[in-house]
Amino acid sequence: MPDRAQQIYREVMTIEPPEPATPFEAATFEFVFGQVWSRPGLSRRERRWVTLTCVAAADSPQPIADHVYAALRSGDITLPEMLEFVLHFAVYCGWPKASHLEGEVRAQWARLHTERGETAPPWPRIDNAELGPDDWERRMELGAKEFAEVNLISAPPANTPYQHAGILNFVFGHVWQRPGLTRRDRRLITIPAVALDDSPMPLRAHVTSAVESGDVTPVELDEIVLQFSAYYGFAKGQALQDAADLARAKAPV
Hints:
Elements: H1 3-13, H2 23-36, H3 44-57, H4 61-74, H5 79-93, H6 95-115, H7 136-151, H8 161-171, H9 183-196, H10 200-212, H11 218-232, H12 234-250
Helix pairs in contact: 1-2, 3-4, 3-9, 3-11, 4-6, 5-6, 5-9, 7-8, 9-10, 9-11, 9-12, 10-12, 11-12
């Protein structure tokens, strides 16, 4: 195994690399760690968002455990940020998957403290004020505003339960406005989520708005495509690359 790949593996996974015993394991070290994680276009923390989204959506128990553990142990992602990620992930990849993910966060948080010979501190307390305004008219107004700012198009009419209760009230009336993650963080989670969900319209919309807003540059988007492809497959990555190419063509020169 090349020394560079070993070092990157240690930095990303926070454990010693095992000796590769199969072609798959050798390629994982040489390509995924030796070439992908070592690239400069995104920070290690940003690559973690893409990777965590992919392994959680893929229902991969051991990779989920490994990457949650590594993200927390490295300090790249704090516990409150990880819990906020679970909520955002639930919106785009589903609540059952998020339920397993949150259970793994709890398990790995306990594991970290056990390894240190410590008792895990109490779980963070949450105040109901974090749920946002309980004035429904104001909430819908803010949801429409957030939708427009994130997607760079006018909010849809609130004429179905999906749009009214789901999109305008909850997704954009609450989740995207929560302070636990930045809008850029949420973009780095949402883009791979809509790509792996095989959702052509949301995929094009979120990729284009991420670039046009300036939250993600075209070069950074190319790095997201590569990180995504390494963890969710190059066939799925092609659809994301196509959306990235369209966004680049529309971006102002």
